[in-house]
Amino acid sequence: MRLEHFPYEIQSHLIPQTSGRYIYRCSACGQGFGIERLLYTCPDCQSVLMLEDEDWNRLKSTPGSRWREIFDYRAMLTIPAIKGIYRYHELIGAVIPLDAIICLGEGHTPVIAANSRLRDWLGIPFFFKNDGQNPSASFKDRGMASAFSYLNLLIKHAGLKDVLAICASTGDTSASAALYASYLVDGVKSAVLLPHGKVTPQQLGQPLGSGARVIEIPGVFDDCMKVVEHLSEHYAVALMNSKNAWRILGQESYSYEIAQAFDYDVSDLVIVVPIGNAGNITAVMQGFLKLHDLQIITGLPTILGVQSEHANPVYLYYLEPDPTRRSYRPVTVRPSVAQAAMIGNPVSMPRVMHLVERYRELGGESAVQVIQVSEQEIMDAMLTANRNGHIACTQGGECLAGLARALGEDRIRKNQAGILDATAHAMKFSVFQEKYFCNTFEPEYEVIPSKELQNSPYLIKLPRHVPNPGTGQALGASEFKQFVDYTASAIAELLDLKSR
């Protein structure tokens, strides 16, 4: 739709202009630093940074009702730069001009309601937000669009050259970083560090296909992360993990899309997210807090973070009800089907602590909750969801298992509706589905398949007298008819079909 076709009073608001004064703000000591250079941790106390718009209050001069109109009308524009997450430009990247924005079609993923059988099985209405329908098949593209747009800004307007974008990953981050780096060809290369043997074949193939230098090292994700952190501190590289504050900024778009999808009425929603490296739950909380501050929404949704028993440091931290007695301790992870969440020392934990406090001040103590689930629950929930029309990954199964457990423990009201984050596409984790169906899980996963959820192909075996096209020899018309008649009859018997 062309700009001149919109109501006159809204036209001047629809094309975003650069504005604001962004700084890095330390989540621990509170110091601010300029964004003119790549910075990932506080130079003084080494804690992680958040991005802050020091001129944020200028946005409050626009009423919340007008912001809702702006975002809704922008959805009809055909300008490529704001077709993705930058529909919400003022909230996630107001200092980035449109000519620097990288958009590969990320964001605005569908929100799919559970069918009646699945809804009745759980006990409340709920929806999967299918972030596996992003370009690299995971939610990481939201943050990468932001981080690479910022890199592109530095390349175009600040003379940055010869950039090596590097990350540690359990699969999704590497696929996304490699994809966006391959698109931004001028002066950018990518390298990814993966834990050897702990990434699915589907995920390993993605960065290789995008041309990244893939380096496998012994250990788990936390070990890879320590190496990447060391590289970012001692060498000229662009760190693309969620330690990069621009990543968090882009992932806030998840919250904005949910608000828009529900006509900005989110008070009775439960937003369920797997915690992993804690970047996503950080972004989700920050996003809703911004919307609330601008009066775009009038109430906050409940945030439910989920962790597996095999990687649960955030759950253990909030298990202590008294804030003065809480003590954060990393954990040694055990094998988990939710590989993207198999992190024992989340980088964004300091951000989480800060934002949970702010969120609970506004929404009450129960506004942010953390729950843990078993590996068995994760796999059973994922397969149950996908048996009912979804494409949830193991992290999506983790979310459904977490919501089910929260309901069983009366943490969630019956009049609430769940929004579950399927962070990646089911196909990325098909190896675990295969293990489930074939009952080949290693003992350390602690998963025993349910016969009701197992599935396998059925082979039609032809007797010797029936012509077989599988031999490679061409069949005559009568022979082929024999084959079709026998095979169709066998299938009809197998499926208990009735004759016409």
Helices, strands, pairings?
Layout: H1 8-14, E1 22-26, E2 32-34, E3 49-53, H2 64-74, H3 89-92, E4 111-113, H4 116-122, E5 126-130, H5 140-157, E6 163-168, H6 172-183, E7 188-195, H7 201-209, E8 213-217, H8 221-234, E9 238-239, H9 245-251, H10 253-261, E10 269-274, H11 279-293, E11 302-308, H12 313-318, H13 349-363, E12 368-373, H14 375-386, H15 394-408, E13 417-422, H16 430-438, H17 477-494
Helix pairs in contact: 5-6, 5-9, 6-7, 9-11, 10-11, 11-13, 14-15
How would you portray this structure in words?
This protein is of the alpha/beta class and 500 residues long. It folds into three domains: 111-135 and 252-445, Rossmann fold, CATH 3.40.50.1100; 139-250, Rossmann fold; 458-500, no CATH class. It has helices spanning 8-14, 64-74, 89-92, 116-122, 140-157, 172-183, 201-209, 221-234, 245-251, 253-261, 279-293, 313-318, 349-363, 375-386, 394-408, 430-438, 477-494, and strands at residues 22-26, 32-34, 49-53, 111-113, 126-130, 163-168, 188-195, 213-217, 238-239, 269-274, 302-308, 368-373, 417-422. It has a six-stranded mixed sheet, sandwiched between helices. Strands 8-7-6-9 form a four-stranded parallel sheet. A three-stranded antiparallel sheet has the order 2-1-3. Helix 7 links the parallel strand 7 (188-195) and strand 8 (213-217). Helix 9 crosses helix 11 (279-293), helix 10 (253-261) packs across helix 11 (279-293) and helix 11 packs parallel to helix 13 (349-363). The longest helix has 18 residues, at 140-157. The chain is globular, with a radius of gyration of 25 Å. The mean pLDDT is 94.
